[in-house]
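User: I'm preparing a small set of examples for a lab meeting where we compare how different chains pack in three dimensions. I only have the primary sequence for this one, and I'd like the structure in token form so I can line it up with the others. Please keep the answer compact; I'll paste it straight into my notes.
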Amino acid sequence: MSYYTTRQPAHSPPMTATSLTRDELLSHNSPSLRPTSQTLTTLRKFRLFRDDVPCFRHYRGRRSGVSRRHGVSPTNESSSSPSIIHNHLDRITNCSRPRTSSSTTINIGCTIKNEKIKACSLQSNSNKSTNSGSTAERRREKSSSARHTCSTNKGESLKFGLINARSAVNKAGLLHSLIETCDLKVLAVTETWVSADSPECVKLDLAPTGFSVFHQHRRSGKKGGGTCVIYNNVLKISPYDTGFYTTFEHCSLKIRDESTSVILICLYRPPDTSYTTFIEELSDLLDIIIINKLDFILCGDFNSPYNGPNPSNATSPSINRHLSQILDNYHLLQHVTSSTHLSGNILDLIITPISSSVSNLTVSDFPISDHLALTCDIKLRVDIQNKITFSYRRIHKIDFAKFNNDLLNSGLLDEQFISVDDYVKTMNVTFRRLLDLHAPVINITKRVSTHPFFELSTEAIEIIRNRRRAEKLFHRDRNPANKKSYLIARNAARKAILKSRSTFISKQLISASNNPKLLWKLANSLLHRNKKSIQHDDECFNLTSQFAAYFQNKISKIHQSLSSQNQNLSQHPIHSRPLVSQPLLQLPPVSVGEVSNLIKCLPNKSSPLDILPPLLIKRCSNAVSAVIAKLANLSFSLGVFPSTFKTAQILPLLKKPSLDKSISANYRPISNLSTISKLLERLMLNRVRLHLINNQNYSQFQSAYRNNFSTETSLLHLLDCIYSNADRKKASLLVGLDLSAAFDTVDHTILINRLHDEFGLQNTVLSWFKSYLSNRTQYVKVGNHCSSKFTLGSGVPQGSVLGPLLFTVYTSPISSLISNYPSISFQLYADDIQLCIGVSKDNFDDSTKIMSDCVSDLNGWFKSNKMQLNPDKSEAAIFGTPPMVKRFTIPSIELAGSTLMLSSSMKILGVILDQHLTFLSHVNNIIKSSFYHIKSINHFLKFIPNPVLHILVRCLIFSKIDYCNSLLYGAPSYSLKKLQRLINTTTRLTKNNSLGKVSEPAPMPILPRINLKMSILTYNILNSSSPPYLSDLLHLQDHEVNLRSTGRTLKCARFNSNFSSRGFRHAAPTIWNKLPAPTRTSSSLSSFKKLLTLPCVSN
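Assistant: Understood. Below is the structure token output for the 1099-residue chain.
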């Protein structure tokens, strides 16, 4: 699509003449002439005047002193005509002259769906015009330039745009189209109307693919307002602080190039603010920039039209005289000289120092708002990455049967090896050789796409053409009827662009509805979830060494802190518990079938360290299974883990998007290991897991990484302890302990000794784990840069299969230690530790003394085992009924030499527990998070088909409602009503969608949902006897003998108050006994769910 533009007139003295010869036209010193009929005849003679060229069309038919187009004065217009005439004459006479670097070309236009739409080309020269003449040569130049842009282009200028959107919230498609049409690298937008509480997807949706956006949200309680800057990701842009002002909103960014930087300030001044104060604050802003000797571009909607005497008699649009005086005082240049608003005023300005780096300013009538779009070139040397070169193998083109046979016949399975590392080295060489044979490496170069996330339909293209025709008629004679037709066509074009985007995205989502992976990829892209931060090449190089040093120093600082705190570790000796099970001396052999079954369960995601991708491993599982089985048997028999698999790649991941990206502590290290390494670990896990967790030294209160154990079962047991204390007229003191870098501080020597002494791993099994933990290395990768490898002296490998199990084995003595205090109940989930003790007014001091002693013993154990308790993240609170909690007015307690402030709530395993267990804070948090997603989905509702909408609602909203919702049994009605309203809202959201309506059952109300979850948990506990800390709370009726017998019912525990009746020991039997006998005796969980019909059990 192409939009006609107005070239800003050059500022030169007016000159007139009555005749014009060809020599005079070609001379640089020829007088500037106002076109007359004789002049037009001469222009037509040399084919210089064409009706379809916008910059000449407005000369036709002038008989008065004022131009009919845009109200430009004859003085300014006539002064611009020589350069225009000279450029076009030069194009004829010098058609063979090559284009020089002093010439800059602006092309406003684009290609939509391979259909070329007419573009308007405006050309200017700094010294001489050296433009080529013929159309064919210009096409050849364009083709050559396009081929040249396949490499990195160090441009001399940056295409910049400015537009007042008057609400950009629902105009993302229009902004994308503007960026593509004008080939913009930076677009400043005023009046976005985007508030701070808008969902991230609404904010990020303004930037098309390959772009980012920086927002200055509109001020709360104010209408309109808000600014943003949309910029290409290749640019090095960072926020720049220029202060806060009351009369205008602005966002400031620093754009860096190879040698200099430019401050870009996008400003919006509401028209109702004090103009005197605005001038003062604008002066303050300019003082900050100029005193710091910064080059800058100040742009935006100043709402400062001409206010001088007799504005109706002004020869051309102008700006406020007070603003003009300020600019003159600071030696600044305002570049916009034609109207930027449909009313004829100049409202949108671009201001720079007089030594301007801005050129080729144009004003375009783009159908976004009643403001016109400004585009210009900024002199800035920027590396524009127009292509990307990468290497890949065509794995999908491989003949998998032939690859499988070649691997079987490679000799790898026939040759005998006595070294694991030699076998792995030969295996990797064989894999690479076969890959080079069947799928050689291909280097391919692709252009970097800057197209928006949609394509215009054929109907939209035709509507845009009609808009262009209507604009052409309107600008020809300024007829009111033609103006009305043009405005109608303009609005139709805007609607067509937005409809095209909606239709395109809907088709994409419908086509992916049967492919969950592709569907979520598109949904995450649409909702802008998990958006990665952009780092440039030089930043990546510095970050790799920075992160590597941080991850290394973090652990060493903890060890140094432990040494300084505890000079004599003999105060807390490491006690070994006796071995209470048979030792594990050797492992059963690995079969090819076992490996094949594991390969079938592999995810398709590949690791950067893989030689064979998972797809190839799956398709050639016959041969690969045999190779891995041989590797595993050799590794297990020798007790050696392959050295090649001991290296991990670390990718730093920002914990939250709102955190400072320059602080290393705000990143979480994500470890990548090879797929074959994980398969080898999985084979070992299958052989040692039952031996370890069935050992009596393994903590039965550890709920992490175990079947039938979960965060929900852990919290059910913890709350049952609180309710039981309340039944005995006691409040509960709950303490949550946190460890610093727990997984990274595991001492290898202590772990190996514990595996041997307490869990009975011996001989080659123990040797294998020694080899697995020793001499491990890792390196950090950011972008295309990697740090040097560094050795890990402690910790279990993160991202590994065996790491979680080894950590729980390492911390298993904690349970025995806490068991020395019978009055304390506790729960463990990985490195999260919760301690609970009943307290009353009479025994509060005694109870806190017991808790303090327990925490002191734990702290001593942690120090002896090279782990550090983090008191800053540990917390405590008192729970119970309101009368119980009111008895305790103390603000803090002393535990193990540290002061813990008593809080009104605690967040444990993702659930917020308030003091009275009303769950109101937790429910409010669910509602806040869910409505964030509801607003995000509602913003794109017209794009999302109904089947896809139901998937999004279930995964993003109902997953939050159902998480640990069994804890809400017996919760106050005002908390549950809030959740029910949330369910009703999501139901209306799906019913109001008109795209692809399907018959979906109404969502289950909140009370049946709670009862359903409690029933499923009870069924799992009764049929697996785990977790034992919950199964011990359930008892058969006195006449029952076997839990699996027909029609079994459970004994309901007695209680003294409604508060204590919410405990699991009472809630589970109450709901279970109301189920029909055939349902309670179902043979499997799936059949139990099918037969499950819950009555409306009210509390």
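A couple of notes for your slides: The chain has 34 helices and 32 strands. The first strand starts at residue 5 and ends at 7.

User: Perfect, thanks.
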